[in-house]
Amino acid sequence: MPFIGNKPTAVPLSGADIEDGTIGLADLSATGTKDSTTFLRGDNTFASAGGNNTPAFEAVLNAGQTVSDAVSTKIQFGREIYDTDSCYDNSTNYRFTPTTAGKYFVYVNLYGGVAAVSRLSQIACQIRKNGTTVADSGIDNRSDGFGLNSYTFVSATIDFNGTTDYVEGFGYINDNGGSNVEFYGSATSSGCRFGAYKIIE
């Protein structure tokens, strides 16, 4: 607009000149989606708070699995409790192959036993990544009177590349009598569990 007389000198606004609560989100130049689930970062972008622990899954043994004595055997966790991204194969290879790279918490619980009392010598479970054992845990009863059945549990934090890396759960039971042994499972409940979820980094 035209001025009569001298043009006023431009003076920059300061924070003190702006009344509190007068600038709306629509007036900001920030990038990203602004809604009730995001916050404004110091780099002038909107970002989601927190993160998702996915891909994630848990599966159980839905029937007893008879295996050879004193042989490490893949546990056939066939019943999925959940599988957020369809990354767990519950019918063929019984393995978890996450499609997002990162660190995951992985766990295996084994419940199994032998055919007669006082013959459970050892029980152990393993987590194998790409076929190689990365974590194991077990119980040795050979100096403690043996037994009939027992639990054991193992967990680990494992890096995945998001494409080809996979994990599987293995179990091992040693029967002092040398017969076949069993990993316990049923259609309604199971002490044998296998699961994993992505860690928010």
SSE layout and pairing:
Layout: E1 38-40, E2 46-48, E3 56-60, E4 65-67, E5 73-74, E6 79-83, E7 102-113, E8 120-129, E9 132-140, E10 149-160, E11 167-175, E12 181-183, E13 193-198
Antiparallel strand pairs: 1-2, 3-6, 3-13, 4-12, 5-11, 7-10, 7-12, 7-13, 8-9, 8-11
**Portion in beta strands:** 35-45%
Q: Rough shape?
A: rod-shaped
Which value, in Å, is the CA radius of gyration?
29 Å
State the end-to-end CA separation. 55 Å
Q: List how many beta strands DSSP finds.
A: 13
Please give the CATH architecture of the largest domain.
Sandwich
The level 1 CATH classification of the largest domain is: Mainly Beta
Unreliable spans: none
Structure, explained:
- With 201 residues, this protein is mainly beta.
- It has 2 domains: 18-48, no CATH class; 56-198, Jelly Rolls.
- The protein has strands at residues 38-40, 46-48, 56-60, 65-67, 73-74, 79-83, 102-113, 120-129, 132-140, 149-160, 167-175, 181-183, 193-198.
- The radius of gyration is 29 Å and the shape is rod-shaped.
